[in-house]
Amino acid sequence: MRRRTTSRILAALxxxxxxxxxxxxASAQQSPQPAGxxxxxxxxxxxxxxxxxxxQMAVTRELVRAGVxxxxxxxxxxxxxADAALTxxxxxxxxxxxxxxxxxxxxxxxxxxxxxxxxxxxxxxxWGCPYVQKDGVRNPAIDDITDxxxxxxxxxxxxxxxxxxxxxxxxxxxxxxxxDLRTWFVNPATRMNPSLDYTQFIPCMVSGRGIGIxxxxxxxxxxxxxxxxxxxxxxxxxxxxxxGMTTWNKQFLTWLQTSKNASDEAASTNNHGSFFDMQExxxxxxxxxPALARSIVVTAESKRLNVQIAANGGLPLELSRTRSFHYSTxxxxxxxxxxMIGQHVGVDLWHYSTPDGGTLFKAVDFVVPAAxxxxxxxxxxxxxxxxxxxxxxxxxxxxxxRTARAAVAKLPVPPGGDLWLLRPAPEQLDPISGS
Length: 435
Description:
49% of the residues lie in helices and 4% in strands.
């Protein structure tokens, strides 16, 4: 056993030496790597992930399977989540009792989270219209429409199950992830149409809004990475499944590039615009269009960072919200993940400096004092949760930010544990829904 463990560790170190993706500072000088089938090297198969670093994932898997102590606790916490996902789902847009305006249940439907009725519901006025907005205060009635909640549960389950299979090799995890994906995206009887025309509708006002695209964009890149991992040879994941997901992704990307809702969302200047770019760039990379992905990330330098990041690193468009810490860290999830996509296509978003001197590193550093308990958060916040910043600080630390590196040991532990070693891409950790 000791010889096998040593062999795995040496093999992982060999892979690091020969294949590890260049540092962020050097990556801008590299040519984009084409998407496609996973590469094999030193006996390893490198997953063609779009946010996660495929080489890092392959190395980590070997270290986990070698029993390196640092991974034991996060693996146990991770498996607990994945085990729960083995007995939930599968989910489908066909589950909802309501019909979208199209009268087609295959269309995704969700209701705007911060809009509330002003009168009691009656037979003549079943929604209690007109509606008014209460920023940051979520209307629980939106959960009566099941697509939003089930979409979130499915995204989380697929990602947890896939990563659990990747690290442990247990086929049950992969088979369940495949079933969940097949049910939501591929099976003709249960699949979702690849469009978001009816997201975050407001009763008696609009049938759908571009702002609702964030229902998907905040987490859909997890699905793209999960599919890339499954495509390295997961049991239960078939060529037909892969082809079905590729077709869905291409059609969804076309919808994002041509629909009015998508155009409205792309024009957003705050976190919604950041997540739109992140999702579009990831889809471009996943569907074999690295040049398009690169163009989106490069454009984000002026379109997103110049507009959003102040000289001191603050995000003024998010700091003005009633949930300013949540929305600051939420926007940083999108921007840091976009920077990770940029590393796949030779764009160094981490070190880009705005005309005012703002950088992505400064934006993360701005939330560090509150996240580590060294200073109070002095902006409006209805429910301050320091752990919301944990993943973005980890991401900046890995990219070379000294302040973030020094802060890692002082970060609070998120609910469910700090899973960064096994899931090294930022996630929205605080439980607010419908951002």
